């Protein structure tokens, strides 16, 4: 007998409809998940979008987020609201015993995030943030390489860049660039991915301090459009990142060890929907007229059976099913990753505000 699928609700359809449309289609690809309810304060606009997207007829539309949380048919919710609104609704969801998948940036700061995590822990519900690339099968394969002391050696540096060119309408109207709704701008949108990538490569070991790089750019409301930072660890590791909504699409990671190097050019969203690649090199050297290697640099391709959105949803609903049906405890690695990412993001923001002064990372 097939298992009853985990029933999902969405809070906020219409606010970022393209992303939600992709996620709702991803839900349909996951056998043990089904979308049952959507709450939108712009219900007429949302209904029109849903009709155009071909949503199933059984999906219930509510004019409030509260109604979704009060629906006994909803097991878990995806919350893709602006950063300053998400903590309120994530806490409310947890208090209603709904498992929480929270879009990034998850909160304006770690104080607000801790409210969410405390509520989830108290209610015994799963928390996860929406960092898609963490769920691609390429990610653990790359981690296997940089954890290999024979091929990669000891990690020494990580450099990451995520930028895209936003059009004038986005720059004028997108909620991510509104101080009353988000306030984190490019740092929360693009920098979140860079910080997570750096922590991922560093086994989620927090740096001692971060220092914002000079040259941050802001809109007229004071929200970050472009910035960067350097991070340092007590063992000598270093990292840098750059994020921006003013530059051509770039999604790169370079991780360098004492013996090897890992590089990829599409870490946020793979260039292809069914396969993703990365390159490695080991024991490179400078020769008289060229570069030499013990083994030539190689490119590796990793196939995936589902798009990243569906892979993330499959992971999330699998954890929810384990709690709901098998009495398992929530997987604490996901909230731990989120909190460390937020701590570094907070330190970067503080360093920017203090004129690029070095800021210790909290705990």
TrEMBL record:
Segments forming domain GFO/IDH/MocA-like oxidoreductase: 148-262
Domain of life the protein comes from: Eukaryota
All residue ranges annotated as the Gfo/Idh/MocA-like oxidoreductase N-terminal domain in the record: 6-128
Gene3D superfamilies assigned to the protein according to its UniProt record, in alphabetical order: Dihydrodipicolinate Reductase, domain 2, NAD(P)-binding Rossmann-like Domain
InterPro entries given in the database record: Gfo/Idh/MocA-like_OxRdtase_N, GFO_IDH_MocA-like_dom, NAD(P)-bd_dom_sf
Record-stated family: Belongs to the Gfo/Idh/MocA family.
Designated name of the protein: Gfo/Idh/MocA-like oxidoreductase N-terminal domain-containing protein
Organism the protein comes from: Vitis vinifera (Grape)
